[in-house]
Amino acid sequence: MVDMVQTQGLTRRFGARTAVDGVSMTVPDQAVYGFLGRNGAGKTTTLKMLLGLIRPSAGTARIGGVDVARDRIAAARKIGALLEAHGFYGNLTGRENLDVSRRLLGLPVSEIDRVLGVVEMRADGGRRVGGYSLGMRQRLGLARAMLGAPSVLVLDEPTNGLDPDGIAEMRRFLRDPPDRTGATVLLSSHLLSEIEQIATHVGVIHQGRLVLEGELAALKAAEAPVLHLRVDDPERAATVLRRWDLSLSKDEVGGEGGLAARLSPGQTHDQVAAEINRALVEQGIGVFAIGARERSLEGLYRQVTENAHPLSEAA
Ligand SMILES: Nc1ncnc2c1ncn2[C@@H]1O[C@H](COP(=O)(O)OP(=O)(O)OP(=O)(O)O)[C@@H](O)[C@H]1O
Asked: Which stretches are annotated as coiled coil (predicted)?
């Protein structure tokens, strides 16, 4: 099966600044790929290179097997995009705005109803966009990206600025697009929880470099489990815990006296938790809570962005 998006060493410099640094990413067919990174990490620049809107300083990008630099038009035909600036005409209706794009793309009129239906906006299509909420504009943007049923949808921060209802709606449309549209989705976000709820695959970009990539479930399963403890004397507890091969950190999420202990490969948390609990109690340390912390994208993200070097080099 052809990977829908594939880049090799994709790099973009702006003067002395390297915004995107040797990114090799792979988005499998039918994936909902969450492209994560904090503001300024290089997400938008990467997406613009995929769309052929800016040229890479080095490296290549392929969309459905087509090299963007060699055949920009053929690659562009395979992609629909929702970027941050919408560029809708406020005095035209939703339908009329879509019609502008439809004509440019040379598509039949029936496409408008189809895409409005996908984002459940047929009833509002006749209203002026100037009167739309931000959430509705965003959905119209998604509808426009779907014109012509491209095989890849590229969405830059699609939930940015939306209220909780708008976010929930957008999530509903993004979670199952392969079912709705047959498209592979690549969406960027700086919100871990958003990506965790929507994505099947993730890529994390940090300071221009791709520091983690893979299927979300597999990445989570491979993450070392973390035990969370809350005790009355965390300093003495930390000394006791040195007997085990754990990496310890402070964790005040559940209240004061919290410790997070990351297990090493091969350790099972039930066994370690029982041993630790016994040792702490023997030392007269009060244990308020001890248990496994659910594996999360946040844990993975922190690991790779704090280390700040690509996993491939760390491995
Ligand atoms: N046209 C440009 N000229 C100079 N520097 C730029 C240009 N575009 C982006 N940059 C720089 O490249 C880096 C990456 O920017 P980019 O917009 O790709 O980040 P991002 O991850 O999309 O962040 P955000 O979520 O804030 O959009 C930033 O440091 C930014 O200042």
From this structure: none
